[in-house]
Fold this sequence. Notes:
The protein has two domains: 3-125 and 140-212, Spore Coat Polysaccharide Biosynthesis Protein SpsA, Chain A, CATH 3.90.550; 217-317, no CATH class. It is α/β, with parallel strands linked by helices. Helices cover 44% and strands 17% of the residues. The N and C termini lie far apart (41 Å). It has helices spanning 13-23, 44-52, 70-79, 99-109, 130-137, 165-171, 185-195, 216-236, 247-250, 258-267, 274-286, 293-317; strands at 3-9, 33-39, 59-64, 85-89, 93-95, 114-122, 160-164, 199-210. The relative contact order is 0.13.
Amino acid sequence: xxxxxxxxxxxxxxxxxxxxxxxxxxxxxxxxxxxxxxxxxxxxxxxxxxxxxxxxxxxxxxxxxxxxxxxxxxxxxxxxxxxxxxxxxxxxxxxxxxxxxxxxxxxxxxxxxxxxxxxxxxxxxxxxxxxxxxxxxxxxxxxxxxxxxxxxxxxxxxxxxxxxxxxxxxxxxxxxxxxxxxxxxxxxxxxxxxxxxxxxxxxxxxxxxxxxxxxxxxxxxxxxxxxxxxxxxxxxxxxxxxxxxxxxxxxxxxxxxxxxxxxxxxxxxxxxxxxxxxxxxxxxxxxxxxxxxxxxxxxxxxxxxxxxxxxxxxxxxxxxx
Length: 321
């Protein structure tokens, strides 16, 4: 077995089935890969539907786990994988027909052990609301595509990413004990890989398509949770202080640069200030009207940064265990 595709899912069979269906059309041969769905569903309907899912070309195994910690779920899937390589895929990411093959070929062509981060874009059939335009243009889900312009970007090893199982175990897997929420476990694993000398390759030919889009409110909650988790990562890896803007939240010496002072102002802005109230007002008014997309880029940015900053403040207020 060359490749194990590990997919965590929780009460989302209607979304997951599109990802599973895409496994039937892969150019990679059946004997070369397996699909491991780690199901943490609390709803019996979803567990039943996943177990009943029609299996044709893809070898599908379903494992059940009682946790909502995605890092622990991915580790569990990896522990049960038989493949030489692991491909971590989100349940709402539909791989293109040759994505699995692309991942394997990149590993095979390399003279060194590497990690591969595939491209993530929204599916063409997904309605392009003004917020989806923002997510696309800001590379929210495809941040590592910008590594050519900013080599300091941390590689996120999650939604469409692969590495050798041996390397994954050597590096210590995901830190599921520390990272219990959304937003930092994948980057922290990527950081450990790069610190250990592993080269991370961005593969724009290994495409995963987002089958659904979160709402603005859902992403705002994600940003707040990310802020909390980033503080955990900072305490484990203090060198990310500036990279993740933790410095602007903890520096009281008054020695921040002008650029950093602007960042602090954005992250700590008063949600009830006139500017933020206007931003929220226009976001709510625009909703899914595509022609507002360009006008609202700055508004989305402003409000999401406040949520991220609030999350960091919450993380900093928590005592270190």
